[in-house]
């Protein structure tokens, strides 16, 4: 028989082994749990707040690129997988995937995929997918695919397509369609667009609304272009020679769409025998169809006569001109005009004897009179 002491020693030894085994098991379990937690954190982690200076000096450390944050604040630049609330950075927010909510950066917001909400940047918003909401940048907004919301940029908006307004100090460019307004200080460009307003030029394929430019519109189809020069493939271009009541003869180029067109011309006045007066004319017109070969052209134009020294004669005119087309290329026209003129009294222009209104009290002569405009044009 075993002695009592042997039995006790066996029990104590067994208890020690069991305790050690349990401790090892607990330690192993905790270790494995911790490893799995870190691994999960590296693959897909969320953080309520993310504070930092610049990557990797932040509360998410070197694993910041795997975190989705609700609120981020960085002195210089922040890096994250995604943002679902507010992200603020002194220089840059760099977001690898999607961003929603509000992102503001002193220099740039870079979003790898889609952006929803508001992005404001001192220099640029760069979005690798679609964007909805509002993007505002001091220099440019660059959206790879569709910009569903509004973009406002100091210099340029560039996107695959646009579903709302694009406003830029210099240019708006969409590779595909622009469904909203494009407003730029210099150039707007798109394929199928709604309305374009450019300080200098607009370029499109099909325009549903108005094209308004300071100088030139280019499109395949645009019924309502408003510019001095309009090169519309489905529209009309012509060269005309006209003469009016002051014996000013103008050679002009008319270009536009089915309805609206622009006028640009130069000429000479043959009535003033004392001075050589050269003419410059610019204006806008509209075609009003009446019959197969007959239409009425309504035109508003500004004309200046000058000898390029001190003499100037200014005339703003409204014309209602019936026109008849001879064949497919030639058109003759003639009609009444209403004219407002102004010039220095000492210049003594006497092109018109009768005025329906004139100002005798001002330093410069001002008057309104009836006149006429007639001519012939070759349709290209």
Structure description:
The protein is mostly beta strands. It folds into two domains: 46-183, no CATH class; 236-379, Beta Barrel (Porin). The protein is 11% helix and 62% strand. It has one helix at 4-43, and strands at 45-54, 57-58, 67-80, 82-89, 92-95, 99-105, 108-111, 115-121, 124-127, 131-137, 140-147, 150-153, 156-162, 166-168, 171-174, 178-184, 187-189, 192-198, 201-203, 206-213, 216-219, 221-226, 229-232, 236-244, 248-256, 260-269, 278-289, 294-306, 312-326, 330-344, 357-359, 364-379. The strands form two sheets. The chain has a 23-stranded mixed β-sheet that branches. An eight-stranded antiparallel β-barrel has the order 24-25-26-27-28-29-30-32. A hairpin with a 3-residue loop joins strand 24 (236-244) and strand 25. Mean pLDDT is 89; it is low at 1-8, 10-16 and 18-42.
